[in-house]
Design a protein that fits this description.
The structure holds two protein chains of two kinds. Chain A is an alpha/beta fold. Helices cover 39% and strands 12% of the residues of chain A. Chain A has a single domain (14-318, 403-498), classed as Amidase signature (AS) domain (Amidase signature (AS) enzymes, Alpha-Beta Complex). By secondary structure, chain B is of the alpha+beta class. Chain B has helices spanning 16-22, 73-85, 193-211, 251-270, 316-324, 330-341, 345-353, 357-365, 370-388, 399-410, 416-427, 433-440, 448-461, 463-470, 477-487, 494-504; strands at residues 23-34, 89-90, 97-100, 110-113, 120-128, 134-146, 150-154, 166-170, 177-183, 186-187, 223-233, 243-248, 278-283, 288-291, 304-305. Classes of the chains: A alpha/beta, B alpha+beta. The structure holds zinc ion.
């Protein structure tokens, strides 16, 4: 088994199966969790190395195999196991893990080993999932391409010369490349959905507060939300139910039942959207949108109509303030959240030779340890919160945020879900926007409003753009605590598309990589 | 670089009387109180003083990446109680903000504080002064915040971070719940300003102790006072430039620091100088203040709402329940007790100084007459406590047990002397007073015939003494009484024995 898959470049059949199907086979003892885990480790070995995808910053093969053995024993003993027990999962490297480093892709935290597991990680372990390793991201989740990682850019499995999106490019690329069937991401302005869209995978930002943030290294506390990355809507729902639900350690966590997302995904897959009111957000089209993206999105909306949905257009004028408001609120919170990286207790320490004052050590460490984008945002945020600018900048951004919430409220009075392209373009070439922060920020234009308002939103693949043959995502937004609606529509669409003639491959063939070998 | 100041050299101190001939002092007092909740403000770590460094810490109070605060409900309750005891309004919706600045003993480099959005505000405290009058100190607000860790700067001359060779950090205190109580400007106190300052902090300490929300130990830092002082020319309405004096660690120091700053300000102003707005450190030894490190830049703390904590909305019912359960104010209680028990000022002061007021009150509540209860605690039990080297409250006898002993004396079962033996037995762990009476066989011999027989026996044994008594020298009866008491191992009522002796010798 392992020799066979190694001979085919890690292309075991197991790496293309859905998580749900893997779990079924493991629980039926048709295959062991160890075999499944090993297949994914071999795939990582084959495609993640130099010149490859580089989705992982750390792989814990030993720990993963030990965890898999434990699940296999539990299955053999016939005891009850959780629905996803034995299935491998990748974890974005901004969530704390006791057995692996947590770096946030920053030099300032290089090698840091947290003494505690994030709540989501603890829940993965409790449910018998197998953490394979930690995935790459833009430093402290600030970026849309993973190019801001201190440890090298992740490459898009569909075209290794292109970005995989960001900040969670590592998680989405790992799932797209068959290195993991599932992954955890965190979404502050689109960091799960936008990488999902450009890698042809499903990415979900749950309603704010429905998945615990305890152990997620904070970027912007009022916007950050952990969510699932998967290759199918049902898989995302299964993982969502493992990690979601109230956590007393997070006081912003919602104390109530999680929306029934697995049930909704199963119901949606039956393909009936009769009576569902779908609103197309008119603000998200036109100039700056790639024609191939708009065409794929329009076709997806047509499919929703064919499934029985009532499609209308809605206008959300305040969404035009979303980007500037976000780029004040998120950096403001970040400037405070990142103040703790000061060389005193953990992480990098520069200039500690006895001749320098504490202030100098702090300042030199932060100068060396943070990358350019992180520093830019700390400076923007520090300025926005300063006495002379607070009202004009941070205060105004909060007002815009209120207006955006109102637009959503009004839109959801007439629509059950709202739809848009997830991101204006397909994956752009590595290096194209690194010198142009504003162009980079535009990648999150469509995803940011749902972070500001805290409602649920996901990205589901809607085929390849005709103009460049790269994946396109459709964003489906639902009201807060109505995540199930988005899942239902996404699952219905996914099922309809799977049976279409131009469905295309679900895992890219990594042509460029294999050609280079 | 901080120069070591020479105490008293920078200004010839004026007395407060001299100062107030030309100036009106204005004070503002900021008191930080550490709450005595079992756990810290935002995590489950023990809130305890004096443990090994860095043993009461966790990811939350160390501010580790990814950790989140979780608000301690008891801290909120204490804050509301304090507000109510200070006649404050309770805000229906308040919240926390982040105060951002870099300092190594603050692990997140921001402090979670209610600085701009306090839970209680706008109150007052009527403070008893030494001459029996009261002074109303108006309260601006009281707000919750987390304490920082502690730095120990090693080497260097000043014990401060600048110039130190290295610093040690202890995060046990990090995240301990604090309440900061801020007065409105105290105007018009004149020469009494130093006294008002001390009386206010004293009264505040007593109120907080009565509420049971804090240890209020200034020596341990669980209560700390910053004193703001300024002078304005007599009759002026615009305040002068103020200084903020920190490190004021006792009630007496509060008074001394205010007095010193008033004199120093006057010295500077009268010699044509101007007061620099600055933080100053009080020196306990010399009773003077010295300037802190001047701030190079204006501190902008960039407050913004703490996104990790939801707003605080205490229900009206909860607040009213807490209000109804507020204890009597300490000095009101003392005044009531003084009247009820008929105590002189001196007797009351002795009780308070001996820390015996609560014990006596509890003994009285358990049924004992105030006079007897007071006498036991301030004399015999105080001696026992001194001898054992423990606080009065540390003695192994409860007010209820003492009340039972007193009752046994009242009903004649015990003499005072026997009662002391019973108390000794209780202190020695021999059980309840009745157990000790039985166990040691200490009840008074009240059988008249047995007592008469003992008297006759004693008279027969000392015929010469008996003859003297019969001759009218009744003072000689003492020797017989003593013999009887000895024979009954002290368990007879000496007065009754005396009567019997005289009867028999008539
Ligand atoms: Zn703690």
């Amino acid at each position: 088994m392992s020799e066979a898959s190694a001979a085919t470049g890690g292309q075991s059949e197991l790496i293309s199966l859905d998580a749900g199907e893997l779990a079924r086979r493991i629980h039926a003892r048709e295959v062991s969790s160890v075999e499944v885990t090993r297949a994914h480790l071999e795939r990582i070995e084959a495609v993640d190395g130099p010149g490859g995808v580089h989705a992982f910053l750390h792989v814990d093969a030993e720990g993963a195999l030990a965890a898999a053995e434990a699940v296999d024993r539990a299955v053999a003993e016939g005891g009850p196991v959780s629905p996803l027990a034995g299935v491998p999962v990748a974890v974005k490297d901004n969530m704390t893990t006791t057995d692996m480093p947590t770096t946030c892709a920053s030099a300032i935290l290089d090698g840091w080993r947290p003494p505690y597991d994030a709540t989501v990680v603890a829940r993965l372990r409790a449910a018998g999932l197998i953490p394979l390793g930690k995935t790459n991201l833009d430093e402290f989740a600030m970026g849309s391409s993973t190019e801001n990682s201190a440890f090298g850019t992740t490459r898009n499995p569909w075209d290794l010369a292109r970005i995989p999106g960001g900040s969670g490019g590592g998680s989405s690329a790992a799932v797209a490349a068959g290195e993991a069937p599932l992954a955890l991401g965190s979404d502050t302005g689109g960091s799960i959905r936008q990488p999902g869209a450009v890698t042809g995978t499903v990415g979900v930002k749950p309603t704010y507060g429905t998945v615990s943030r305890y152990g997620l290294v904070a970027f912007s506390s009022s916007l950050d939300q952990i969510g699932p990355c998967a290759r199918s809507v049902l898989d995302a729902a299964l993982l969502h139910e493992v990690i979601g639900g109230h956590d007393p350690r997070d006081q912003t966590s919602v104390d109530g039942p999680l929306p029934p997302v697995v049930e909704a995904a199963l119901a949606g897959a039956r393909g009936d959207l009769a009576g569902v009111r779908v609103g197309i957000v008119t603000q998200f089209s036109g100039e700056g949108y790639q024609p191939g993206v708009l065409a794929a999105f329009t076709d997806a909306v047509r499919v929703l109509g064919e499934l029985g949905a009532d499609v209308v257009e809605v206008s959300c004028p305040s969404f035009s303030y979303a980007l500037p408001a976000y780029y004040l609120i998120a950096p403001s919170e970040a400037s405070s959240n990142l103040a703790r990286f000061d060389a005193m207790r953990y992480g990098l320490r520069v200039g500690d030779d006895g001749s320098q004052s504490t202030d100098e050590v702090m300042s030199q460490t932060r100068e060396k340890g943070f990358g350019a984008e992180v520093k830019r945002r700390i400076m923007i945020g520090t300025h926005a919160l300063s006495a002379g600018s607070y009202d004009a900048l941070y205060g105004k951004a909060l007002k815009a945020r209120t207006l955006i919430v109102r637009d959503f409220t009004a839109a959801f009075e007439t629509c059950d879900v709202l739809v848009s392209p997830t991101t204006p373009t397909t994956a752009f070439p590595i290096g194209e926007r690194t010198d142009d922060p504003l162009a980079m920020y535009l990648a999150d234009l469509c995803t940011i409003p749902s972070n500001l308002a805290g409602n649920a939103a996901l990205s589901v693949p809607c085929g390849l753009a005709a103009d460049d043959q790269l994946p396109v995502g459709m964003q489906i937004m639902a009201p807060a605590l109505a995540d199930d609606r988005a899942y239902r529509v996404a699952a219905a669409y996914e099922t309809a598309r799977a049976s279409a003639s131009d469905a295309g491959p679900r895992i890219p063939e990594l042509r460029a990589l294999e050609g280079s070998r | 670089m901080t120069a070591v100041s020479t105490p008293g050299v920078e200004s010839a101190p004026y007395t407060v009387e001299e100062v107030c001939e030309q100036f009106d002092p204005v004070m503002g007092l900021e008191v930080h109180v550490e709450l005595n909740t079992e756990t810290k403000m935002f995590c489950g770590c023990a809130n305890a003083f004096g443990a090994e460094p860095n043993t009461h810490v966790c990811p939350v109070c160390l501010g580790l990446p990814g950790s989140l605060p979780r608000l301690n409900g008891t801290a909120v309750e204490s804050a509301i109680k304090i507000g109510l005891a200070l006649n404050c309004q309770v805000r229906e919706r308040s919240g926390f903000a982040r105060k951002n600045y870099f300092y190594p003993d603050m692990p997140k480099n921001f402090q979670i504080s209610q600085y701009e959005d306090p839970i209680v505000f706008d109150g007052y405290l009527d403070v008893p002064l030494d001459d029996g009058t009261t002074w109303r100190v108006e309260i601006e607000r009281a707000h919750m915040e987390e304490d920082t860790g502690k730095s120990l700067h090693v080497g260097g001359a000043t014990g401060r971070i600048h110039g130190a060779d290295y610093s040690l950090l202890d995060y046990n205190r990090s995240g301990v719940p604090l309440i900061e109580i801020v007065t409105k400007p105290i105007i018009g106190a004149g020469v009494r300003a130093p006294e008002v300052a001390r009386a206010y902090v004293t009264a505040l300490r007593d109120v907080l102790r009565g509420l049971g929300v804090s240890d209020v130990r200034m020596d341990q830092g669980s209560m700390r006072c910053d004193a703001n002082v300024s002078l304005m020319p007599k009759g002026a309405t615009e305040f002068g430039t103020r200084t903020e004096t920190k490190n004021v660690n006792s009630l007496r120091s509060v008074e001394r620091a205010v007095r010193y700053e008033m004199g120093r300000h006057a010295g500077v102003l009268l010699s044509g100088g101007t007061i620099r707005q600055e933080t100053r450190h009080f020196d306990e030894q010399s009773g003077t203040t010295s300037p802190g490190r001047p701030k190079e830049t204006f501190a902008d703390y960039r407050f913004f709402p703490e996104p990790d904590l939801p707003p605080l909305e205490p229900s009206r019912d909860w607040v009213e329940t807490l209000r109804a359960a507020l204890p009597e104010r300490p000095w009101e209680r003392r005044a009531r007790i003084q009247t009820d028990w008929g105590l002189s000022d001196e007797e009351l002061r002795d009780l308070v100084n001996a820390d015996a007021l609560d014990l006596v009150a509890d003994t009285v509540d358990a049924g004992a007459p105030p006079e007897a209860a007071r006498s036991w605690w301030v004399s015999y039990l105080s001696q026992q406590a001194n001898a054992a080297g423990v606080a009065l409250t540390g003695l192994a006898i409860t007010p209820a047990q003492l009340a039972r002993v007193i009752a046994l004396v009242e009903e004649g079962t015990l003499t005072n002397k026997l009662a002391r033996q019973v108390v000794d037995g209780v202190l020695a762990g021999e059980g309840e007073p009745d157990d000790v009476v039985t166990g040691r066989g200490l009840a008074v011999v009240s059988d008249e015939s047995a007592l008469a027989a003992a008297v006759d026996e004693a008279l027969a044994a000392q015929p010469a003494v008996a003859e003297k008594i019969r001759a009218g020298k009744t003072k000689a009866a003492g020797a017989i009484v003593g013999a009887v008491m000895k024979a009954t191992r002290g368990q007879a009522d000496a007065a009754r024995v005396q009567e019997l002796v005289l009867e028999r010798c008539q």
